[in-house]
Amino acid sequence: MLTGEKSRRHFLKTFLYLAAAGCGPSFMGLCAGCREEKPKAAPGSVRAAVRADFEPAYLKLRRTGELRKRGEELWARMKRCNLCPRECGANRIEGQKGFCQSTSELEVSSHHPHYGEENCLVGSGGSGTIFFTNCSLRCVFCINWEVSQGGRGRATGLDAFARMMIALQERGCHNINIVTPTHYSPHILLGLDRAAAMGLRLPLVYNTCGWERMDVLRALDGVVDIFMPDFKYSDGSMASKYSSGAAAYPEGVKAAILEMHRQVGVARPAADGLLYRGLIIRHLVMPNRVGGTKDVIGWIAANLPKDTYVNIMSQYTPTYKAFEYEEISRGITRVEYEEALRWAREAGLTRIDTQRTPLL
After folding, report:
1. How many other C-beta atoms are found inside a 10 Å radius of the C-beta of residue 330?
2. What is the DSSP letter of 157?
């Protein structure tokens, strides 16, 4: 644990590292680079945010009543909650908090057009991002720990949630990007049902840590247009150490990614440059090979098409409790990031999204 002057030096180093990357420390769930105000869509221009011939997957299920039915079935599982692989058994409906620290009350930290996502999600109008409060993985290095573990957010009813999605559509966002959705899957389906009745027609992005239950993922079949899971670790001991005992994470995320790919296929942007359907895998390169990057890349190359969209991320920054672990108490180096890119090329992956080379 760092204290005093040494801690202040680490904070300054973190701030400078993020600033050089075009980002900044997290405040209210937003990074400094994402607080820039972008032009709002002109009145009547909502239709331009998506192709005229596009229909999101969830509209079909909504018309048959299936979307609401699945949402209600997932809601009932909060009586003895098993929505995530933790299977904590909390009666969230009666107000008990699960491992994720959530009851059945939806909590939202922020909602806004986000311009820091993949280009095919951002376009000109931004990704309509809704940050949910709390998390079932609880990583010690989470850059948004105030939201994921500090509980920063506000109670939000399902009608208000639906109106958030409509507001993002009216601002000209190209999709609805729900961040840390796992513990709120019932709320998502029920909120979508209401938003669709209000005219929502944007693709849904399921932006997750990747550790999902297979039966819950199957309930999302025909609901989600774009899956965007993390693949954080290849080694269960590392997942256990840095993500609150999640030793089963590697095998769980592999099964989840295969199911996501089955549902939505390879991510291929349309002629307008935007993505409407498909799988994006994110892998955060960590210092000292803690994430097992080579094995993560090798598994993707061996089990999915070579043109699977993989974002190899360079922005790891020590924050929250990361300074309690010497091996992850620094950002990654140029050598570590370039090593990850070389492994991806050698594995034959052809759809690699890259970021700025680290300064260290």
Report:
1. 19
2. -
Structure tokens at 164: 């958030």
SS3 164: helix
Half-sphere exposure of 18 (CA within 13 A, CB side): 19
Q: How far apart (Å, rounded) are the C-alpha atoms in residues 333 and 14?
A: 13
The 10s digit of each residue's pLDDT in 7-19 is 444 444 444 344 3
* Contact between residue 189 and residue 165 where contact means Cβ atoms under 8 Å apart: no
Residue 305's φ and ψ, nearest 5 degrees, are -55, 150
In the structure encoding, which two tokens stand for residue 289, read together? 């090979």
* Total domain count, the chain: 1
* pTM of the full structure: 0.88
Q: Is residue 6 part of a domain?
A: no
Residues 209-233 pLDDT 10s: 999 999 999 999 999 999 999 999 9
The pLDDT tens digits of the residues spanning 310-328 come to 999 999 999 999 999 999 9
**Does the structure show a pLDDT above 70 at 344?**
yes
Give the number of other CB atoms < 10 A from CB of residue 22: 14
Q: Are 56 and 65 in contact, with CB atoms under 8 Å apart?
A: no
3-state SS assignment for residue 108: strand
Partnered with residue 110 across adjacent β-strands are 131
Q: What is the CATH number of the domain that holds 101?
A: 3.20.20.70
- Tokens in use for 38? 């972008």
In a domain, 10, yes or no: no
Average pLDDT of 78-93? Answer: 98
In this structure, what token pair is assigned to residue 22? 């075009």
Q: What is the mean pLDDT of the chain?
A: 89
User: For residues 59 and 201, is the Cβ–Cβ distance under 8 A?
Assistant: yes
Domain span including residue 283: 53-353
| pLDDT: which is higher, 331 or 27 | 331
Neighbours of 198 (CB within 10 A): 12
Is residue 291 situated within a structural domain? yes
Closest CA to 134 of 117, 152, 122: 152
